[in-house]
C-alpha cells in the first residue's frame, strides 16, 4: 500500500505545486466520491426504519423491537467508523491520500451490492441479521476513511483563503448522497407493499455499482494532495504511528473537535433516520411523501453547507459555528411543533428548518475547522479521529436515543428530544468557543517558520 501505486500521469507538479485544473479535478473527485460513499451509507439508514425490520428479523418479533434492532445495526456502522478513520488515516498520513480514497470507495460499492442481493430472515434465519451486521461494519470502516480523505483532498488543493469553502464541497457529498438515496428509495417506495418488500428496495442498492465505477475513474485521475507532497519532500512525513502522535500532540484539539461535531451530526441522523418513520407513524403523510420531503430538504442542504462554509472563510470558523449553535437552540422547538402539527406543509417546512438551517449552520465550516487543527503529516488521522468519534456520539446514537426519549412516560414526546439536542448543542458550542480560531492558521504558521529561519540565519 504505497504511494508508488499512483500512475506517472497523476504525479503533481514539482515541489507539490498544483494547477487550477488539478484543484478543480480534486474538488469534483472529492464531491462525487463522497456522494457515492454517502449514497451507499445513508441508503441503509433510510431503509433501516422502513424495510429491514420486516425482512431481516423474525416475523414473530414485536415490530417495535425489530425497528430497535435495526437501529442497533445502524449504530454498529457508526461505531466502526472511528476504527476505519484511524486505519485509513494511518496509511493516508504515511503514504498519501489518493490511494486510500480509491480503496474506501471500492469497499463501499461492494458492500452495497451485497446488501442488495442479501437473502432475508425467511430464507436463512438468524444468519440474515448477522450478515447485515458484518456488512454494516465494513461500510462504517470505509466511510471512516472516506470523510477525512475527501475533505483533505479538496482543502489541500486550494489556497488558504478558500479552504472553508473547498472542504465543504466534499462535505456536501453527504446531503447529495442523501438526496440520491431517499429519492431513489422514495420512487420505489411507491410500489405496492408486496413488490417493494420483495424486490423494489433492492434496486437502489444495486444501482450503486454504476456510481462506484464513475467515482473510481475520477479518483484514478486526481493528483496527490500538494500539502502532503510538500511535507514528504521536506522530510516531515514520519514513519511512526500517526494516532499516537495525534493523541500526544493534540489532546485538547482532538477533544474539542469531537464535541464540536457531535451536535450537528445528531440532527443530521435524526432527520435522515428517525423522523421519516416517525411522521409516517402519526398518519399525517405516507412513506413516499415523507421520503420526498426529506429529499427536498437535503437538496437545499447541498447549497446551505457551502454557504455557511463561505461565511467562515470571511468571518472565521468560530463566529459562524457559534452563531449556528444559537440558531439551532432557537429553532429546535418550533421544528418539532411543525413535525407534530399533522399539516403536510408544516411537516415539509420542518425538514427545511432542520437540514439547511439548524444542521448546516454549524456543520458547514466543520471540514476546515477540523482540518486546520492538525499539521499536514498528522491531519488525515486527526480529522478522521475527531469527526468519526463525533459521529458515534452524535449521529450513531440519534435514532436509538430518539426512540427511547419519545417513549418516556413523562408524555413529553419529541420535547424530550429537543431538550437533549439543546444540551448536546451547548456542549458543542462550548468546545468551539474553547478552540482557537483556525482560519488562516497555515499562513500564520508559514510566516512563523520563515521568521524563525531568518533569525537562525542571522
Automatic annotation (TrEMBL):
The chain crosses the membrane at residues 38-56, 68-88, 100-124, 130-153, 165-189, 201-220, 254-278, 290-311, 320-339, 345-371, 383-405, 417-434. Residues 1-21 are annotated as: Disordered. Residues 26-440 form the Major facilitator superfamily (MFS) profile domain. It is found in: Cell membrane. It is a multi-pass membrane protein. This is MFS transporter. The keyword Cell membrane applies. Its main location: membrane. Keywords: Cell membrane, Membrane, Transmembrane, Transmembrane helix, Transport. The keyword Nucleotide-binding does not apply. Pfam families: MFS_1.
